[in-house]
Amino acid sequence: MASNLFYVGGGAAKSLADVAILQKKYELFDQKIIPEIFQKNLGLKVTKISKPEIVGLPHVTFFVETDDGHEYCFRANLGNEAAEVELKVEKLVSDLVRKAGIQANTILQVDCSRQNFPFDFQIQEKIQGKNPEHNFEGNQADYDKISYELGQIIGKLSLIHLPGFGTFDKQIANQKNQLITTLKSNFEYITLELSGQLATIVTAGLLTQNQSDKIQAIFEASKNLIDIETGSIVHYDLADHNFFYDPKTFKIVGLFDWEAVCVSDSLLDLASAPTWKTLYPREAQLMAGFTSVAKLPENFEAKMNLYKLRTVIWKVVHNLKFKLLNPERLERFRKALRPFEIG
User: Fold this and answer.
1) Minimal CB count within 10 Å: which of 140, 142, 174, 285?
2) What is the per-residue pLDDT across 83-104, written as a single tens digit (0 to 9) for each?
3) Is the residue at 4 inside a domain?
């Protein structure tokens, strides 16, 4: 079952047995059904279907060309017994941020009803560009341009305010097309599941119980710092594989994968983005881009340290679950602990 907090889709929501099954997903999915879906939902005739070079869990993903001359991205979920209504949340959020002038994917159709087809699916316009994690064609100065603009985008997201905090109620999103948050405070969101995740890390021998208790106490003592009056949209998965760039201008052409989206402190995005794998150091450019759009709070450094640590904690748990914890990821964990003199 997916966690209510820090849901990052794919592997994070699956058992190892699920992952083994889903690796065969393209063998299980009959792509001949795609033309019927496009005809019924968009009134378009499919002329070509191709599989992306890079695929992830839990969806099957295809690029689809149609008789209107456009290209689309089709995603179908074969992995969940329950409908993946997160797909509807993604559409509502991407619609919202595009209205605010932020480069994001355009999702045209979501169907989680399973009335016409025995799976959930999503159709979006194909973003024309390259993925910097897998297809970067520039130097550090070009990468810095991307990082600076990513900081600007975080700044723009910080200006989209919604009531409440945490993730969105999936059923309300699916049934009423509304984005309604699930929690009353940012502190509640940030500390949700913290104890259990720390216990997992202690069991793995990466923390002592005393260190775990100290981390828990640090967050408890920081309640007034973490709590904010109004939250804003936080993507919370701003890794290089979740946006495309133009290889000529090195401008970001579209963010996507809003499965971890929440309402929280915008500094959560600013702090967590550099914890993903990057080609060059990113934080300085992110900060510069952000401050060109929005103002940092006076206590931003203390918040950034807390949010980096909180992000890396759930990442370590995820890496332990799927046996992905390597020396580089372990060093990020140790680095996040240092400002608190732990480790």
Assistant:
1) 140
2) 889 999 999 999 999 999 999 9
3) no
